[in-house]
Every structure is written in C-alpha cells, then in structure tokens.
Amino acid sequence: MNNDIEKVLFTQDQLNKRMDEMAVRLNKKYAGQEPIVIPVLNGAMIFASDMIKRLNFKLTIDPMKASSYAGTSSTGKVKIVQDVKSDVKDRPVIFMEDIIDTGRTLKALSAEMTKRGAKSVEVIAMLDKPETRVVDFHADDYGFKAPNEFLVGYGLDYNGLYRNLPYVGVLKQRVYA
Ligand code: 5GP
Ligand code: MG
Ligand code: MG
C-alpha cells in the first residue's frame, strides 16, 4: 500500500500537534455547553475520532453522511445520505470534516443546521484546499492548507481504499491508470 504513495504531505506527528492546538480553542469556547459533534462520514471518521478524544466538555456524537463525489471529481450536488438522530434546535453544532474542497458539502450542511434552529454552527476540518473553492465558504479552523492535488490517507480514500494510512499523502499516477 505504501508503495502506491508518491509523497507524504502531513505525518501523524504533524497532525497530532495541530489537533492539540485546535482542541485548546474548542475546549475554551464550549466549556459549560453541550454541543452536537457531527463527523461527516466516511472521510472524517479518523480525524474526528482523534479530535473528539481531545475535547473535555460534554458532547453528543452524531454523524452525518453526505455525498457529492464520484471518483476524483465533484458532481456539484450535495445529498444527505445519513442524517443526524438528534434534535439540533438550540444546541451548538460542530461539524468535523476531512477536507474542504469546493466548499459545497459543508456550506449545504451548515445551512441545513441553521435552518433547523441550531444555537450555533461551526466547522473544523483536517485540511483546507482554498484554491478549489467554488462557493463562498470558510471553515472556522483547519489543520493544514492542502495543495490542489488528490490526497489519500487519514480517512481520505480513493475508491474506498487508503483511509487507514496514518498520514496524508499523494497517490502515484499509475494507481489511477
Ligand atoms: P467539497 O468539495 O464539498 O468541499 O468536499 C467534498 C468531499 O470531497 C470532501 O469531504 C472529501 O470527502 C472529498 N474530497 C475533496 N478533496 C479530496 C481529496 O483530495 N482526496 C479525497 N480522497 N477526497 C477529497
Ligand atoms: Mg468528507
Ligand atoms: Mg471520498
């Protein structure tokens, strides 16, 4: 599997350090509150499980699954494939996402939670690809800025594979061929 990786962009160590930093702000901000944390499946499962362990306030974990992607290019449509079970009304919502690319997914999901009456909505992402944004959307915080390349690892897949790599990397060209 590692033989399919062209280069490693972010190591487990780098990710751990950034998650420690990101948790400090969240622990201050949500002290005394009970947010609903929404990992966006499947991509965010690794990042979210690591982040959540760093949080020391009361919270509910309630994942969502959205789909807007096939292969390596965006189709532009956002569909809720699995919804939260919780009533978000008057609760703070924290989305945890693997990577913000076009911005469509989290713009749509955030708007939906606002519509349902969430007390507040924020989005934290492991990675942010600012160059490929097609809608006006910013994460409240993110781990690292990522280049405009197709990335795998740490939850990010190519056709369902490579999510278990303990780092974020770029696939070799021959893997797509
Ligand atoms: P959006 O374009 O709506 O911001 O992002 C939708 C989803 O596309 C992301 O949550 C992620 O699952 C997927 N995605 C975007 N860029 C990449 C990438 O470089 N690698 C992988 N594996 N998935 C990506
Ligand atoms: Mg995702
Ligand atoms: Mg994917």
Automatic annotation (TrEMBL):
Pfam families reported for this sequence: Pribosyltran
Keywords in alphabetical order: Cytoplasm, Glycosyltransferase, Magnesium, Metal-binding, Nucleotide-binding, Purine salvage, Transferase
Domain Phosphoribosyltransferase: from-to ranges: 12-158
GO molecular function: guanine phosphoribosyltransferase activity; hypoxanthine phosphoribosyltransferase activity; magnesium ion binding; nucleotide binding
Gene3D superfamilies according to UniProt: 3.40.50.2020
Cellular compartment(s): Cytoplasm
Needed cofactors: Mg(2+)
Classification via PANTHER family: HYPOXANTHINE PHOSPHORIBOSYLTRANSFERASE, HYPOXANTHINE-GUANINE PHOSPHORIBOSYLTRANSFERASE
Protein name: Hypoxanthine phosphoribosyltransferase
